[in-house]
C-alpha cells in the first residue's frame, strides 16, 4: 500500500530531465569569476545575484586547479588493484588529472537554472501527500494500515527535509527570502532548526572529506575513538542506534566537537549569524508548541501514531542516507588532512546511491557527487548534470549499484560499514578507515 500511495504521488511531479577527460584546468591564480564566466552561465539580473550569505551556503569560495592537485596523492596499499587500459593502476586517493572548472564546463548551461515555480510544485506535491496520508490513516485507524502509513509518511517527511535542504543551499530559487521562508516552514514542521542546520551543513560541504573539519559522519581519529567509553562506541557503531543519531547531533554534535544547533553562541556559528539562529530556534519551538497542543486535543496515542513514529522513520532515512553518501564503498576511500585536502578531492570521495523508485520521491538526493561539488544545481537537474560530467570524472566516479524496486541491499552495506569503519590514524594526510577488532 505504501509503495502504491507513494508511486501515485510521484505521478504528480513535473517531468524530470535525464539524460576522454577534458583539458587541463585554469591556473588557480585566475579569479573564480573568470572561471565562472568561461562556462558561459546564463546572465543574471540584480534580483538574481547571490548575496554573500547565499554564496557561503552553496558554493566553495575558491576553485582548485589541476596544478594544485598534482603531486598531492599518496598511493593506498588498500586500493589501486584495478588496471586501466594503459596498464596503470587506479588509485582513487591520488590527485585527479582534471580540475573543478573542467567538470563545471561539461555540465549543460540549463542545469544551473533554478525555476522557483517548479521547486514550489514539488513542495505542493509533497505537502498534499503528507496531509492525504495523515487524513487517510486517521480515518481508517486500523493496525493493518498503521505500519504502512508510518513507512510512507516517514519517507515523505524525509522528502520535505530534502526540499528544505535545497532551500539552504540556494538551489531552490535565486530569491533568498523565498528560500528562507520555505526552508523554515518545511524544516520546522519536522523539528529541524533550519538556520542552525543550514549553517552546519554549509560547513560540511566546504570541508567534505577532511578528517577534522568535516561536519557530517566524519571519521574519529584513533586517540579520540579510544577515549570513548565502550557503551558510546557500541551505540555509535551497532544497528539500529546510528539510525537514531540525528536528534542527538542537533543538540550535541559529534564526539570531539562541542556546540548546539539551537544555541546562537555555539562555536558552529559566526557572531553575525546570531539572529538567524534565534529565528530558526523560535520556529522550532513554535512547532513543538503546535505538537503539544495537538497532543492535548487528539490524545498522545493518536499523535504518536500520526507524527512521532513517522518522525523516527524520517530520522532513520536521514542518518542512513547521509552516512552512505560518505561510507560503505566496496573499496576503502580516503580521508584527507593538511595540504593533501582540497575541495575537489574531498568531493570525489562522496558516493552516489540508487534508491530505486524512491529516487523520485526524495528528489534524487542519491545523485550526490555532483551535488557535493556544485550544490547550487537544482535537484531536478542533478541526473543530467552527472551524466554530462562522467566523461571528465572517469574512474573517479563510482557508479552506484542498482537497487531494483527497493534499496534493501543498502541496509547490508550500512551494517557492514559500521562493523569495519571505526577510526582513522591520528597522523597522516591521506588516511583510511581501520577496524576495531573488539567491535566486530
From TrEMBL:
Protein name: Omega-3 fatty acid desaturase
Originating species: Digitaria exilis
Family note: Belongs to the fatty acid desaturase type 1 family.
Keyword Chaperone appears in the UniProt entry: no
Fatty acid desaturase domain ranges (all copies): 142-397
GO MF, any single term: oxidoreductase activity, acting on paired donors, with oxidation of a pair of donors resulting in the reduction of molecular oxygen to two molecules of water
Protein localization: Membrane
Keywords recorded for this protein, A-Z: Membrane, Oxidoreductase
Any one GO CC term of the record: membrane
Amino acid at each position: 500500500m505504501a509503495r502504491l500511495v507513494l508511486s501515485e504521488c510521484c505521478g504528480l511531479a513535473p517531468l524530470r530531465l535525464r539524460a576522454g577527460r577534458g583539458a587541463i584546468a585554469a591556473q588557480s591564480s585566475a579569479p573564480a569569476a573568470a572561471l565562472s564566466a568561461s562556462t558561459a552561465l546564463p546572465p543574471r539580473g540584480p534580483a538574481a545575484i547571490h548575496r554573500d550569505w547565499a554564496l557561503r551556503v552553496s558554493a566553495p569560495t575558491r576553485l582548485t586547479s589541476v596544478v594544485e592537485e598534482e603531486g598531492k596523492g599518496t598511493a593506498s596499499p588498500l586500493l589501486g588493484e584495478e588496471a586501466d587500459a594503459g596498464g596503470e593502476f587506479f588509485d582513487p586517493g591520488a590527485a585527479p588529472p582534471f580540475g573543478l572548472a573542467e567538470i563545471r564546463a561539461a555540465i549543460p548551461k540549463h542545469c544551473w537554472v533554478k525555476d522557483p515555480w517548479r521547486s514550489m510544485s514539488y513542495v505542493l506535491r509533497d505537502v498534499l501527500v503528507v496531509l492525504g496520508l495523515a487524513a487517510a490513516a486517521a480515518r481508517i485507524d486500523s493496525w493493518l494500515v498503521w505500519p504502512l502509513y508510518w513507512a510512507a509518511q516517514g519517507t515523505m517527511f524525509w522528502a520535505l527535509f530534502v526540499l528544505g535542504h535545497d532551500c539552504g543551499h540556494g538551489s531552490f530559487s535565486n530569491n533568498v527570502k523565498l528560500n528562507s521562508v520555505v526552508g523554515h516552514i518545511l524544516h520546522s514542521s519536522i523539528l529541524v532548526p533550519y538556520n542552525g542546520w543550514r549553517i552546519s551543513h554549509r560547513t560540511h560541504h566546504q570541508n567534505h572529506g577532511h578528517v577534522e573539519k568535516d561536519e557530517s559522519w566524519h571519521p574519529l581519529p584513533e586517540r579520540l575513538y579510544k577515549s570513548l567509553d565502550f557503551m558510546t562506541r557500541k551505540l555509535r557503531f551497532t544497528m539500529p542506534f546510528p539510525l537514531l543519531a540525528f536528534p542527538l547531533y542537533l543538540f550535541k554534535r559529534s564526539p570531539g566537537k562541542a556546540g548546539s544547533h539551537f544555541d546562537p553562541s555555539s562555536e558552529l556559528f559566526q557572531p553575525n549569524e546570531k539572529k538567524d539562529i534565534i529565528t530558526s530556534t523560535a520556529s522550532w519551538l513554535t512547532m513543538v508548541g503546535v505538537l503539544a497542543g495537538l497532543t492535548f486535543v487528539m490524545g498522545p496515542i493518536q499523535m504518536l501514531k500520526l507524527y512521532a513514529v513517522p518522525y523516527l522513520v524520517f530520522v532513520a532515512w536521514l542518518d542512513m542516507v547521509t552516512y552512505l553518501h560518505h561510507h560503505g564503498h566496496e573499496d576503502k576511500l580516503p580521508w584527507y588532512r593538511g595540504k593533501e585536502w582540497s575541495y575537489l578531492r574531498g568531493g570525489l570521495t562522496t558516493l552516489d546511491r540508487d534508491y530505486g523508485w524512491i529516487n523520485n520521491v526524495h528528489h534524487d538526493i542519491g545523485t550526490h557527487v555532483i551535488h557535493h561539488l556544485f550544490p547550487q544545481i537544482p535537484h531536478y537537474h542533478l541526473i543530467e548534470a552527472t551524466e554530462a560530467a562522467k566523461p571528465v570524472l572517469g574512474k573517479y566516479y563510482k557508479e552506484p549499484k542498482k537497487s531494483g524496486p527497493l534499496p534493501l541491499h543498502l541496509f547490508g552495506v550500512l551494517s557492514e560499514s559500521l562493523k569495519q569503519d571505526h577510526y582513522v590514524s591520528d597522523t597522516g594526510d591521506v588516511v583510511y578507515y581501520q577496524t576495531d577488532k573488539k567491535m566486530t
